[in-house]
């Protein structure tokens, strides 16, 4: 059952509660690999612990002044409110590890087709600030890493979290080598949207059939037109009908079919892919874990 080639970035640090007792949504980072091992989808050998991302790599994407604030714990009260977490050394360390995990997944994917980060998808982080529980934009940092080291020439970011990847869109708004594609709730956070290269805003109550139709109508021609040689996929499960913030009506099987279609399309075009889990806020943690684990299962089926 286990696929020994499946590379999964995971660090127990992800699952630790923050000093003030914040636990949700951190618990899923602990439960996802446990469930995958219980179901014999993976073994412990598939799990790889990232190191801390070096400052010089972060600074290819984020401003030096902002990184210094994160490390020195000098974010203002307003900046902390925008992020949604109180600052702490543990939180900054977690973000640096998550970001390196996404880079590691990308390097592995170049040779093996795919790499998956149990965490990541911190798409609300801008170059100079954090928002929406995101401090550092791991996809943006990893994409810039690939470009700077000439490991990719044309990168597609597929953001299917229910919230628009506003930070990612802004960071790459003038970068023709990166194409940002976002399907997200029209009336959901962030309420001020940035402009992705392709935005598909979804109305409240969008059902499974409509969601999948829009995805299947847009992704293949986009790939044919842009011709990426690498992709990042943000597979948020906050599109589920059970999600308390998502406002969409996509079923669990519909969410799995979404993942199946993305992976089959990328695999069919020979495009390596890095995956991050993104959001998921269903009241029953089992809905979140099952949907996220389905993403890993679909990835294993193709790669």
From TrEMBL:
Query: What Pfam family does this protein match (any one)?
Result: Hist_deacetyl
- The source's domain of life comes to Bacteria
Is Glycoprotein tagged as a keyword? no
Keywords (alphabetical) are: Hydrolase
Q: Which residues belong to any copy of the Histone deacetylase domain?
A: 28-292
Q: Does the keyword rRNA-binding apply?
A: no
Q: Which family does it belong to?
A: Belongs to the histone deacetylase family.
Q: What's the protein called, per UniProt?
A: Deacetylase
Q: Which organism is it from?
A: Flavihumibacter stibioxidans
């Amino acid at each position: 059952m286990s696929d020994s080639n499946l590379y999964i970035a995971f660090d127990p640090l992800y699952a630790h509660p923050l000093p003030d007792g914040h636990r949700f949504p951190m618990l899923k980072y602990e439960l996802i690999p446990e469930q995958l091992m219980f179901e014999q989808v993976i073994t412990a050998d598939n799990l790889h612990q990232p190191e801390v991302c070096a400052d010089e790599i972060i600074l290819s994407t984020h401003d030096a002044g902002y990184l210094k604030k994160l490390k020195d714990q000098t974010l203002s009260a307003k900046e902390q409110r925008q992020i949604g977490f109180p600052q702490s050394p543990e939180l900054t360390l977690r973000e640096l590890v998550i970001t390196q995990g996404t880079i590691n997944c990308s390097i592995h994917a170049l040779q093996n087709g795919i790499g998956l980060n149990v965490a990541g998808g911190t798409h609300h982080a801008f170059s100079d600030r954090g928002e929406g529980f995101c401090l550092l934009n791991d996809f943006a940092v990893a994409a810039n890493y690939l470009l700077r080291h000439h490991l990719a020439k044309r990168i597609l970011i597929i953001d299917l979290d229910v919230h628009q990847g506003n930070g990612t869109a802004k960071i790459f708004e003038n970068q023709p080598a990166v194409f940002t594609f976002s399907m997200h709730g029209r009336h959901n956070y962030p309420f001020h949207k940035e402009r992705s290269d392709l935005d598909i805003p979804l109305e409240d109550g969008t059902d499974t059939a409509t969601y999948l139709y829009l995805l299947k109508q847009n992704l293949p021609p986009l790939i044919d037109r842009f011709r990426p040689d690498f992709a990042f996929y943000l597979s948020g499960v906050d599109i589920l009908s059970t999600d308390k913030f998502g406002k969409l009506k996509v079923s669990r099987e519909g969410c799995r079919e979404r993942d199946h279609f993305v992976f089959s399309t990328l695999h069919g075009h020979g495009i390596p892919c890095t995956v991050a889990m993104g959001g998921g806020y269903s009241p029953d943690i089992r809905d979140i874990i099952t949907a996220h684990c389905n993403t890993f299962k679909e990835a294993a089926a193709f790669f």
